[in-house]
Amino acid sequence: MEYLLIFISAIFVNNIVLSQFLGICPFLGVSKKIDTSLGMGAAVTFVLTLSTIVTYLVQVYVLNPLGLQYLQTLSFILIIAALVQMVEIILKKVSPVLYQALGIFLPLITTNCAVLGVAILVIQKDYSLMESVIYAFSTALGFALSLVLFAGIREQLSLVKIPKGMQGMSIVLITAGLLSLAFMGFSGLESGLRTLFGLG
Questions:
Q1: pTM, 2 dp
Q2: Which among 116, 44, 42 has a CA at the least distance from the CA of 78?
Q3: For the chain: N or C, fewer Cβ within 10 A?
Q4: CA atoms within 13 A on the CB side of 138
Q5: Is residue 130 within a helix (H) or strand (E), and if so which, with residue range?
Q6: pLDDT at res. 129
């Protein structure tokens, strides 16, 4: 049941973009079309889950035993960068169309602070490997969900007449703020589920 709570909480209550404000660059940059958002969401899900597993194992079995915790951020960044390069190579061979669609935004995964943030958060929260994997996967799903929702709204906005002073990034930021407020409605969900299942 704890796994289910981690899953629901990471997607809705503590959404990485809309509640914790990590991964804003790709959220604003790749959310113009739903197709691109889905591709980016899938790529981030894969990289985020895989990088969390690898960084967790490096932290527990290399950095902690050797007393090299101060190298956490540096080693995590290097691991994430290597994994993103791997995803880029695979996408180029498997799906050239998706690779072209993502274009310059694919390297954004490397600098996506959500990926590094989750890798560090699972260590800070003292999660087990299984909890870390569930947290990373559900966080990535939450990222993809917010990205696709935002892309859908932006596609609808392109079909309506917006006042001149609100066009461009102004309406995009206002929309992102309203979406964030909408997700705040889930804030009581985690405590309600904990009470329901008697987890305190």
A1: 0.85
A2: 116
A3: C
A4: 20
A5: helix 129-157
A6: 93
